[in-house]
Amino acid sequence: MNLEKSPSISMTRTPPVLAWLRTDPEARWGLPGSRYTRVNSLVAAILAAALTAAIFGIMAALPERFSSIVAYFCERGPTQYATVFAASWCVMLLLIKNRKIALQRKALQRVVVPEAHDFVLSPATVEQVTNRIYQAVDDPKHFILFNRIAVALANLRNLGRVTDVDEILRSQGDQDESIMESSYSLIRGLIWAIPVLGFIGTVLGLSSAIGGFGEVLNSAKDMSEITGSLKGVTAGLSTAFDTTSLALVAALFLQMWMTFSHKSEEEFLDDCTEYCHRHIVNRLRLTPFDDHG
To answer: How far apart are alpha carbons 113 and 122 in whole angstroms?
Structure first.
């Protein structure tokens, strides 16, 4: 008999409290963490500046055999620096955001409504569920799932109308989706701006090449001088093509990364909705007050 019970005991072991202050990437650094999966853009920009400086610092330290790579990044005009910074900013936003999504997903592993078959969620049992929420996390307002549940339970406790709980959960779900979409605004803007920077570099490079070619034709006296002077013209063409290639590759990579991140966050919100329906809505029962209200 003891052998049969031991597996169930291990399966129902209470997980440790999910502490937002110790696990949120920004809060752990002593910074004011943004709400849910939003990222502090200024923090990400500072980290991106440090990453950009590190990248070009490494370029400066590379040996001579990597001169073509160094030239690709460091000798193609100012737009290459701007492109690397914008891409680094986007990378930092996505890295921190993915950490935040992973933290929010951990809330799905906490079951705050008693799983006993005879338990009924009603105004009389709201306090019990609320206490279990605070035993699972340090502060429900920092977690999408538990903030959604806490708002619904607060209305249930104050109004006593269980028929409104499902509507409140749906409304909170719509608000969470809106917050999620707005959190990608800066990332989308950067991904749009990166190819534009590449095209600006292309225009600058072509202008330099065409202007240089005109000067060659005006000043050269014979074919040998023209041939020698054209080497300077090709530098402008290199700038034109290299800036575009770097920007397009970076934008493609970041767009794919953002797409997967967005899909993961959408799936998480769907899981939150399913959790609320299974553990909250399905456990609600009407009371005499509701029948007459």
So the answer is: 12
Of 156 and 277, more confident? 277
CB 123 within 8 A of CB 160: yes
Coil, helix or strand for 214?
helix
For residue range 147-194, list pLDDT tens digits in order.
999 988 888 877 667 677 888 888 999 999 999 999 999 999 999 999
Two tokens at 142?
A: 């920092």
Give the closest residue to 75 by CA, choosing from 238, 247, 209, 251.
238
Let me know if residue 3 belongs to a domain: no
Classify 35 as helix, strand or coil.
coil
Task: Calculate Rg over the CA atoms of the chain.
Answer: 29
Separation of alpha carbons 69 and 46, rounded Å: 25
Given a contact cutoff of 8 angstroms between Cβ atoms, the answer to whether 165 and 276 are in contact is no
198 token code pair = 């590449």
pTM score: 0.82
Longest dimension (CA), the chain: 104
* Structure confidence at residue 213 as a pLDDT band (50, 70, 90): low
Dist. CA 194–CA 254, nearest whole Å: 10
Is 246 domain-assigned?
Answer: yes
Q: How many domains does the chain have?
A: 1
Structural domain harbouring 97: 18-292
Q: Is residue 76 part of a domain?
A: yes
Q: Which residues contact 72 (CB under 8 A, 6 or more apart)?
A: 80, 242, 246
DSSP letter at 30?
Answer: T
Q: Is 22 exposed, middle or buried (0-12, 13-18, 19+ CB in 10 A)?
A: exposed
Calpha distance 141→130 (Å, rounded): 12
Is residue 222, in this structure, part of any structural domain at all? yes
